[in-house]
Amino acid sequence: MARKKVNVYEFPHPMGNDCLVGHKQTLDTFVDAWEKRNEHPLHPVWMLTGPRGIGKATLAYKIAKMVYGNVGDFFIIDLDRNLDKDGKIKSDGKSISVYTVRATIEKMRMSSMSGEWRVVLIDSVDALTVAAANAILKLLEEPPAKTLFLLVTHQLSNVLPTVRSRARVEKMRPLGIAELRQLCAKFMPEDTISTETLRLANGSFGRIANLKQFGGDEIYENLIKILTSKNSTASNIMSIAKQIAPEPELYGILLDVIAHFNLAELYPMATNAINDIKRINLEPEISVFKIIQEIRKCL
């Protein structure tokens, strides 16, 4: 049974979010290139890469609005607009289909005579199927005139090298503690966010929301107490494993605990075990329990 969520947060979609915190250097780099596009042709493909939850999509939409200016055309490829082979929205899609990409290409062909700048925003490239990525690649090989492609990606290694080679890659850094506090004050004003929770977020505001929503901050503190207590039992460990197991968003807590105890040698084991849970649907409670037991053995 899934663990009851502690809080429910409603954040604005990146398209409607005017609150961009951080990433000034990346934004300034694009603005400079955009303003000088008549002197030096603007690179047609910009890839915004970095950890989840740091504001990549928010920045992408901000750039898109600057370029198409409500006059040109704006094409969005994401899971919310994902299509099946019949052209219907796939509400439960976990990857972006080739049919979605093909439909976008067809719409672009129909708008090619407008003469204004067009923007194609993909959020995210990681979610593209292989067929969809190859369809995008064909488009990038000979990008249409006055068309800007904004590619959001969470893990650069997940992107086809051929796609990556055609993009100007902008690596966006995790947010700082002060920047995270600023976002918390705006979007979670009623919550008290501890410095420890901010640290656990590893620069991702999205992760703070997940930690608070699923009680991850409290679980982390309790797990540290269990591991440092001489009186804790296997039953205590299984109890907390059952709290973590139903929510994949909380698996990162295990890596945070490893970091807390400076047990870097356990990272490969824990990372592989977590990936196996997601990949082959192992019993999550048992897998999480075993990871915690391995941490305990090293203390």
Task: Describe it.
The chain folds into two domains: 150 residues, Rossmann fold (3-Layer(aba) Sandwich); 121 residues, no CATH class. The protein is built from 13 helices and five strands. It has a five-stranded parallel sheet, sandwiched between helices. The two termini are 31 Å apart. With 299 residues, it is an alpha/beta fold. The radius of gyration is 22 Å and the shape is elongated.
Major sheet attributes: 5 strands, parallel
Count of individual helical segments: 13
Biggest sheet: strand arrangement: 2-3-4-1-5
Second rung of CATH, namely the architecture of the largest domain? 3-Layer(aba) Sandwich
Stretches where pLDDT is under 50 for at least 5 consecutive residues are: none
Helix content, binned percent: 40-55%
Count the beta strands: 5
Helix-strand string: HEHEHEHEHEHHHHHHHH
Integer average pLDDT? 91
Strand composition percent: 5-15%
Question: What's the N-to-C terminus distance?
Answer: 31 Å
Question: What's the level 1 CATH class of the largest domain?
Answer: Alpha Beta
Q: Radius of gyration from the CA trace?
A: 22 Å
Query: What is the 3D form?
Result: elongated
Within the CATH hierarchy, at the fold level, what is the topology of the largest domain? Rossmann fold
Query: What structural category do the secondary elements indicate?
Result: alpha/beta
What's the name of the CATH homologous superfamily of the largest domain?
Answer: P-loop containing nucleotide triphosphate hydrolases
Tell me the number of structural domains. 2
